[in-house]
Amino acid sequence: MRKVHISEVKSGDMLAVDIYGANGAILLSKGVKLTDLYIRALRQKGVQYLYIDDVYTFDITAWPMLNSAIRKQAVKKVYETMTSLINEKSFMKRVSSFDLGKAYQTIFKQILEDVLNRQELMIQLSDLVVSNGYFFHHAVNVATIAAVIGVAKGYRTEQLFDLGIGALLFDIGMTQIPEELWRKKGFLTPEERAILHQHTILGFHMLKDQDNISLASAYCALQHHERYDGSGYPRGIKGKEIHEYAKIVAIADVFDALISARYHRKQYSPHEAAEYLSAAGNILFDYELIKTFLSHVAIYPVATTVVLNTGYIGVVAKVFPDFPLRPIVRIIQDPYGEELKSPYEIDLRKEMNVTIVRAV
Question: Which residues are in the HD-GYP domain (predicted)?
């Protein structure tokens, strides 16, 4: 399989990765032959990239960020919780009727087991989600990324659960903000921005008195928009004043937001998002945590189409945790855009004069 921009997809191409809807259900299954109608509908739903199978890359497999069955169940629970709270006017009464802690412990246990069962503690990125499902899938992605960082840091099980539950519910306060604000595509007015910023405080108050949810988890809701240099909100605290769980959630939140399809802006590649985080080290984010994160994320995930400094175009066939910028690449096009009759692979760990210029 290989990842291509939707503008390059043609009728008859075979979808290689499931596409998920807002509630976690599969909207379009892998193996489906795409039609012009499907392609138009996916473009309208904000999908910018697709994974397709072709004769050059049919044997390349990109592993999802999370097991599909676990993703479906986790997103379904987040969807049910958040939509119920969005539709409930008296949120404190409504949230008290949920045992959020117990329910989300069960969800995060499955996510954590999936992370721990991997051969390598590496975040691969091949999940496809329609834009109107971003809010619900985003929470699950943030929790998965946070779990990887927590495991990499050697957190105890209790710490991992506090972090994971906080990551799953960090944006719960958004359910009490007028929906038209957090779905708005244009610029927010200062008044609208002030209202939106309240979601951190609202989320904290929704979680802090919940059974089976620790105060540390609630701090993820309160502090995930605080920044290392004190430029964040709601309190403008900085450095060590910010709880480490909230710092981790902030990194996961921004990274997943950048690489996700959104109506209002370009979708970043993992490499571009990693560069943004690196540049913001010890300015917006804790640099030591960024280093831990970047050492466990595939900068050029398997199935990514890349351009080399030689002008040749290829597809990432295998990645190595110790050499994130030096994967094995299957060359499929020459510098003139002509497809090769006999594609071949090069190992960038050995071909040191060859580098990746950009992902496409």
Answer: 113-309
